[in-house]
Amino acid sequence: MRALVAVKAGEPTDVLRLESRPVPTPKTGQALIRVKATPIHASDLHVLRGRYGISPTFPAVGGGLECVGRVAALGPDTEAPTVGERVVVAAVPAVPGPPVACTWQEYLVADTQRLLPVPDHLSDSSACQLAVNPLTALLLVTRELDVQPGEWLLQTAAGSTVGQLVIQLSRHLGIRTINVVRRRAAVEEIKALGGDEVICTEDEDLVQRVAETAGPDGVLKAADCVAGPVGAQVSQALAPGGLLVVYGALSTHRQTDPAALTIPLQARSVIYETKRIRGFWLNRWFGTASPERALHALARVRGLVADEVLSIPQGQPFPLEHFIEAVALAEAPAHGTKPLFVIEDGRDEDGK
């Protein structure tokens, strides 16, 4: 089979190679999956650069997190799912937890507890993106922040995939959103998605606008994936006793020095107003959630997407051999389209 392999840590276009590798063999409790489509996430590229929360042993197959495909074979004494069934592979590495197979390859082996059947009417583009961004949005809103109907939710990077999904989910649940963007051109797009209020940091004061919208005390619940000065402003906009969940650091996208990944918080605000700031990382959630709980959450996401409550933006397909172009699109500012590696049929299920 073909696989995209990183020979060492570094810039993805410099270290990735398209190689031929043996088709893996599933063990008991595992399935061999013929991969059909898998996305390129920013975190995939951060892993290759050596600036993520986990690091593989190189050389290593690139990618990870999620894909859609069909069951090609089952391990010994493994009865389900059935051969030929279409499934999503939740390949997010659990922390702590054993290693999982990465997805930028034609075949991979996965534990059956990480497989979610998906109906054929759900497109490959939507199915291969179920297990990361929609799940993150669901967990942020309903578990990490426990936002209730009628409450305000403040979020940064509202135009990102997760941000758009948070808006859609909040609208469905009756939650009001205050959405932060950095470009004036994005304001109308966010309003069209259903965002109640939009703040543009290009020409507006975030703290002042939150106070004008939600009242002088601010909001009780916020999600941030920008960090840096914007994350600090979000913490200032919190009401006393409010909670900020930080799940990304887009403002330091190319930063490799861990000491530079900061949010300059005001100590007085944290101490005297008892504000809470904590992190969320999907990998660690998978490390603490039981397989049953994880599949239940994924099934809920599948239902929300199938019922068109959540709409995942259509990805742009690339064959594995065009990985340089695919990575370039993933890195392009405000690209709005997630690149997908799409592996066309044309070999039999033995990989020949």
Distinctive features:
alpha/beta, 16 strands, 12 helices, 352 residues, single chain, six-stranded parallel sheet
- Distance between termini? 8 Å
Structural class: alpha/beta
The biggest beta sheet is recorded as: 7 strands, mixed
Task: Enumerate the spans where pLDDT stays under 50 for 5 or more consecutive residues.
Answer: 347-352
How many DSSP helices? 12
- On the 0-100 scale, what is the average pLDDT? 93
Any idea what the radius of gyration is?
A: 21 Å
Secondary-structure element order, as H and E? EHEEHEEEEEHHEHEHEHEHEHEHHEHE
Strand elements, count? 16
List strands and helices in order, with pairings.
Blueprint lengths: L1 E5 L5 H4 E5 L9 E10 L2 H8 L10 E2 L3 E10 L11 E6 L15 E5 L3 E3 L6 H4 L5 H12 L7 E4 L5 H13 L2 E6 L5 H7 L3 E4 L5 H9 L4 E6 L3 H10 E9 L20 H6 L3 E4 L2 H7 L2 H16 L9 E3 L4 H9 L7 E4 L10
Helix pairs in contact: 4-5, 7-8
